[in-house]
Amino acid sequence: MGVLDRLILRDEQWERMSPHIIGDERTRGSSGRDNRMFVEAVLWIVRTGSPWRDLPEVFGEWNSVFRRFSRWSHKGIWWRLFAALSDDPDFEYLIVDSTIIRAHQHAAGAKKGPEDQALGRSRGGLSTKIHMAVRGLGCPVRFALTAGQKGDAPQADALIEGLPAQVVMADAAYDSDRLRNAIADKGAVAVIPNNPSRAQKYPLDKHLYAQRHLIECCFAKLKQFRRVATRFEKTARNYLAVVTIAATVLWIR
């Protein structure tokens, strides 16, 4: 079985993506010749976790593919593609959580320093944390990166800001008066277990809270893409693009 026998995108999936891709015959002055093969090349890297230099020749020159991937990251094209395809209005539930990603040693050494690149150091080594909000059916709708040692609760406000929801769920690490007030201001119900140190206890709907497993399932699906499960990118911008690409695939499956 060759590389071309294991491409990710089906024809109907590409038909959904292609109107949002730049550099085709509809865009004057662009140089993209085979956009589908370029996207498949990036997906091959994201899925396998292989170094860019190991990109099979059938996809083209590895350095050209990498530079185009990086340009799209810089211009926010991957995020615009995700935003265009993640258009389901089902926001009955909004679930917030984070996961720690171990970073390969090659992820260190970016020019601006580790803190600027969402790269932290702990006893386990270098790490990055993905903070994410998913909708009620378990698909990601918003995510952000921080260094691995950063706390969860301070990132929650930005994750839920502007997103409609009837219920917002999170684990006890997010239990703070500030977040509960922000959720109430949205007209939503907070389903968050009480932190053991909290003096004023809030009731918890355990039936609703059982749905929080959906975000754990979402993280598990994202980590099937090996370049998400381990960070190899030196810059936070490019690693966020990798996460965005994997999240886009979840939406069009």
UniProtKB/TrEMBL annotation:
Domain Transposase IS4-like: 94-249
Superkingdom field: Bacteria
Domain Insertion element IS402-like: 9-82
GO term, biological process aspect, one: DNA transposition
Signal sequence range: none
Lineage: Bacteria, Pseudomonadati, Pseudomonadota, Alphaproteobacteria, Hyphomicrobiales
Protein name: IS5/IS1182 family transposase
InterPro entries tied to this protein: IS402-like_dom, Transposase_11, Transposase_6_like
One Pfam family recorded for the sequence: DDE_Tnp_1
Entry's Gene Ontology molecular function annotations: DNA binding; transposase activity
